[in-house]
Task: inverse folding
């Protein structure tokens, strides 16, 4: 073969390689699906005479197996490899697939920024004269594989960043919505004084508390917790709060009717995918009587001016768990002067320390009983300090809401 002919063939090969790189780059810029990119990769190398090739790439996790992303020319489907570095650099030049050993001629690690990002396993379909196409084009195959795999990695990282940014924005919006549901000012009067604390978990929580003074002088006290996080949970709680306020604005409030109405609204809105735990009480200062219903919520603690505290658990399942509540229990309590009601969500009592021990209701009861003469703000501070002392270095498990009421 003359030098001129060799140069012409070499130029033709370089032109073909440049065209292939351009086509792949354009497909990447068009954001073609992964399957289209792998198919283009396969067609280019087949046209160059590469009769056998398998491309192995590792999953997202460092410990993930190396999956065969595209292959052709082998007699059987190639399995994922747990340790390709050791397997492919051995002397056997074979990959075990089931009961068979699949032979290969050449295995090349493809590196990027000092890390191996892929392995290309090659061989010719049939032995022939001259230099093997796998050997002749090995540098180009390595370059083409690098461009393809790096592009796919960057695509995954970009998608992750978009998802993360979208999630962070969603959580921020949900947090803003959730904060709008909480009362800015609690309705203290000559009969009751309130204090509240709220700590969201990871930007947004599903907790809600409220106190509303009714025209007849009674006080409505509520605390709730929605399952799930993010915008769906925030919308559900927003809808719930609006419906609750509409119901308590009526002249006559029947607790059982109120709870059944709320349950229907939550079930229809969430379609059984989420539920809300809810405690609601009506306290009449003229009689000292407080009626309440607990819908699957952590029982609030009532501590009288003297004597042991009690937890208020009478009620029914959480709202939205069932399409219709079979029975709604109602509790009542004579509230004396100096009594304290502590409403809270599960983030308080279920918080574990580094040893896996929860804070617990008994610890809360003992603390409130020992601090029953403290003002409500001071009492809340004492509870949170004791809770933080118990938690230690353990991460907060959930949102924490605390609404404390002192009756006069």
Result:
């Amino acid at each position: 073969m003359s030098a001129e002919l060799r140069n012409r063939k070499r130029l033709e090969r370089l032109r073909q390689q440049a065209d292939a790189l351009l086509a792949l780059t354009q497909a990447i810029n068009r954001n073609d699906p992964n399957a289209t990119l792998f198919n283009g990769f396969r067609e280019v190398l087949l046209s160059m005479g590469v009769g056998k090739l398998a491309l192995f790439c590792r999953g997202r996790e460092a410990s993930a197996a190396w999956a065969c992303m595209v292959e052709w020319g082998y007699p059987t489907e190639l399995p994922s490899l747990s340790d390709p570095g050791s397997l492919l650099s051995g002397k056997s030049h074979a990959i075990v697939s089931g009961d068979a050993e699949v032979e290969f001629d050449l295995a090349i690690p493809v590196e990027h920024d000092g890390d191996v990002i892929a392995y290309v396993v090659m061989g010719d379909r049939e032995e022939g004269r001259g230099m093997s196409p796998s050997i002749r084009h090995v540098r180009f195959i390595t370059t083409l594989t690098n461009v393809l795999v790096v592009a796919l990695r960057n695509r995954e990282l970009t998608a992750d960043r978009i998802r993360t940014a979208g999630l962070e924005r969603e959580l921020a919006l949900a947090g803003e919505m959730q904060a709008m549901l909480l009362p800015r000012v609690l309705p203290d009067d000559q009969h009751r004084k309130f204090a509240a604390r709220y700590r969201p978990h990871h930007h947004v929580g599903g907790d809600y508390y409220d106190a509303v003074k009714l025209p007849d002088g009674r006080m409505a006290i509520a605390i709730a917790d929605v399952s799930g996080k993010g915008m769906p949970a925030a919308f559900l709680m927003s809808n719930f709060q609006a419906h609750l306020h509409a119901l308590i604005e009526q002249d006559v409030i029947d607790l059982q009717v109120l709870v059944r109405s709320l349950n229907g609204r939550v079930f229809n809105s969430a379609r059984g995918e989420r539920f809300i735990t809810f405690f609601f009480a009506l306290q009449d200062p003229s009689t000292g009587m407080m009626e309440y219903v607990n819908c699957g919520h952590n029982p609030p603690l009532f501590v009288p001016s003297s004597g042991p505290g009690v937890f208020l658990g009478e009620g029914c399942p959480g709202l939205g768990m069932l399409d219709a509540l079979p029975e709604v229990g109602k509790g009542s309590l004579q509230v004396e002067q100096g009594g304290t009601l502590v409403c809270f969500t599960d983030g308080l009592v279920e918080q574990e320390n580094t040893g896996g021990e929860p804070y617990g209701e008994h610890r809360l009861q003992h603390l409130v009983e020992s601090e029953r003469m403290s003002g409500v703000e001071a009492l809340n501070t004492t509870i949170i300090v004791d809770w933080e002392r118990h938690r230690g270095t353990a991460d907060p498990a959930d949102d924490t809401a605390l609404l404390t009421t002192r009756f006069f």
